[in-house]
Each structure stands twice: as C-alpha cells, then as structure tokens.
Amino acid sequence: MTLILSVILLAIMAYLIGSLPSSVWIGEAFYGIDVRDYGSGNAGATNTFRVLGKPIGFIVLFLDILKGLTATSLVLFIASVQPGSEQYINLQLLFGLLAVVGHIFPVYEKFKGGKGIATLFGMLIAIHYLLALACLGLFIVVLLLTRYVSLSSILAAISFPLLTIFVFRRDEPLLIAFGIAAAILVILTHQKNIKRLINGEESKAKLFKQQES
What we know:
Oligomer: single chain
Number of helices: 10
Radius of gyration: 18 Å
Low-confidence stretches: none
Mean pLDDT: 91
Distance between the termini: 67 Å
Number of domains: 2
Helix content: 55-70%
Structural class: mainly alpha
Largest sheet: none
Shape: globular
C-alpha cells in the first residue's frame, strides 16, 4: 500500500472516529432523549453535563477526548514515517483536525455535533502532552475563577498557539498555523456564548454543591 493511499484511508478513519456521537447515542440508549433537544442544543460534553448529569457527562468527556487521541495516533500505522519528524507531526495534525471536524459535523447524526473542545484536547495530548497540560491548567484556573465553561475554553484555545511559540518554542510552521486556526475555530463555534457573555446571560457551571442558606 502506497503512502498516499494509507494517508487517505487513515484520514477517512480519523473523521469517522471523530464523528462518533457518544452523547447522542448514550442519551438515546439509556434516557430516551437526544441531548441536542435540550440545553445549548449541541452534542458536546458540556451540554451532556447540563442535561444528563455529572456521571454521564464525565463518560462523554472521556470518550470525546479519546476520539481526538485515537484519531491523531493513527499515524503510528504508517511505518515509513519517522516519529517526531515534521512529516509525522503534519500527519498528526491532519488526522486530529479531521477528528475535530467529525465531532462538529458528525456524519452519523446529520452533521450536527458539538464544539470540538474535548476532541481537540485529546489531539493535543497525542501531539504534545505538556502543551496540553498547560492549556488544561489555564482552563481550570479560568473556570474556577469565573465558572464559565465557554470562556475557559476560548481562553485555553487562544493560549494554544501563544504557548506553542513563546513557551515551548516549537517552530513547526504547520503546528503554529494549526494552533491559530484552532483558536479561530473555537471562537467561531462559541459565537453565541460570546454574545451571552457580553450581555451577562451566559450560564455558570455548578462546580460544587451549594449549601442552602
């Protein structure tokens, strides 16, 4: 099998992996509901927390992260590509991006999915786990300070290319370009959230059980 054919087949597989709508299928199988009919109307982990509760929310979050990690790691099946090389990283970016696209536009569910944050994070773990942990750390800090999941996601995504360039000193052009594109994608998929944040109408996450006074 030629390199080009291998890349094409694995690229299709990466998209199909990213398209797996765990929140929709779990909601329909165990609760008889489509999570997209409630809350924010998307199939992401955040809405699953809101609609189905924390236990199922954590399961969906894990599965969405796993999708990005698995799809990005498909590059391991191409034996002719040297791990750590520029070509290797470029293929990781390709497969990971297709998984994110699959999550946002899942072929199995009429192309109506989530916003791709968890899948993007899984992809980042596969490419550079320290960079992933740094973005996660910022996400957690902002979430604890504001309780806005959307704002935490947006700022973590924006930090991705900045950390790549100025902290981890990575000089791969496509990795930097992808970081910028990913940040723009997250902003675009959170336009409604941004409007609600500006208007003071965005819902806050219930991080801890609140004591009744």
